[in-house]
Amino acid sequence: MIPAVAPPSEAELSSQLRRMAAAGVSVRDLVEHLRRVFPGPDVSFAVVLAFKRAFHLPLLEARRIEGSALLGGTLYTPEQTEALFRPLIDRDRDSWDV
């Protein structure tokens, strides 16, 4: 039996996401990374919290990703999600500890 791998700490996950975003990784790929970290059908809230913590987003802004097709929502296409979240992610880039 293969032992389960523990997910990274909150600080390490935030650091991973910030490094990826700073390198220009798409929002789609950030979400896919989180899907690998938190496998299972109920990943939406984990994605919201990870975006909130990593990118210093208010909860109401972070929750908008739940409406994305990237998480099974119908409000935003992947392209609309990128256009919506990229400025939010980049807004506080100077405050990141990468």
Question: What would you say this structure looks like, in words?
Answer:
- This protein is an all-alpha fold and 98 residues long.
- It has one domain (10-93).
- 55% of the residues lie in helices and 0% in strands.
- The protein has five helices and no strands.
- The termini are far apart.
- The model has no long low-confidence stretch (mean pLDDT 92).
Number of helices: 5
Q: Could you list the spans in which at least 5 consecutive residues all have pLDDT below 50?
A: none
β-sheet strand percentage: under 5%
Average pLDDT figure: 92
**DSSP, total strands:** 0
Q: Can you write the helix and strand succession as a string?
A: HHHHH
Given helix and strand content, the structural type is: mainly alpha
Based on CA atoms alone, the radius of gyration comes out at 13 Å
Tertiary shape: globular
Termini separation comes to: 36 Å
Number of domains: 1
